[in-house]
Amino acid sequence: MSQEFPRTKIENLSVSRLLIGSNWFLGWSHTTAAADKYIQTRVTDQDAADIVEAFLRFGVDTIVGFAHNEKLMKAVKTAQDRVGRKVIIVSTPHFDLSGTPAAEATNLKMLDEEAALGAAVCMPHQGTTDTMCNRLTRNIPGMDKICKAIRERGMIPGLSTHMPEVPIYADESNLDVATYIQIYNPVGFLMQIEVEWVQRVMQTLKKPVMTIKPMAAGRVTPLVGLAFVWSTIREIDMVTVGCMSADEAKECVEISLSLLSRQAQTFQLQRTRSKKSIDGK
Questions:
Q1: CA dihedral 37, 268, 80, 46 (to 10 degrees)
Q2: Which of these, 67, 101, 152, 189, has the minimum number of CB atoms within 10 Å of its CB?
Q3: Average pLDDT, stretch 2-14?
Q4: Cα(100)–Cα(102) distance, integer angstroms
């Protein structure tokens, strides 16, 4: 077994501080439709399992995604069987907000399935959470009912958001949630206000934060994105990384461990002809 990655807690649940993101092996690149298609056709179920396994062998045992996604769950099961270690699932489902009896029944059925699929933490997706957020009243009307339904099914409730206001309002209203997902990277990609403001908000929150998109969906290199995020979050907070290969997963773990321990970076650098004048190779 490789070096175990540091851990934190969401309530009484122990999770790795590095989280496995799923966008990059499921096909959501945040770049172009062609890039999405490339991922969907080239990253196989086997590749996805290899990625999860690579993380799992470092003790990175917590994955963020939608538990209903077949490719994600296949990868989780295969990796668990290979390594003999359980993967903790943080699921981010969408909810039907139309308010009809049929929508209510659909939402409850979906939550029943989330629990049956093994989700430990259930965090309504940004598309649900941010739609419900009310800046005028500084709260998230109706979210308490969703959180109660999540609790009743044995899962820990949290909120996934792109809005820095969401965790503030949740804290102010004492909403029954245990953690937040928030976009955070050095270039402000997909962030609604300046990086400095989001960092300050996260420092004041009552609950741990799962940061996402630390490398701005490939717009900065792993060392740059990870160095920034690890050095500016709290020890209770987490970083989510997505990868397209097992080698990338290992690289992100190794870079993160070096940064957290303040050791010299030893990961292999990419080589081009322009580097010859530097080291003579």
A1: 30
A2: 101
A3: 92
A4: 5
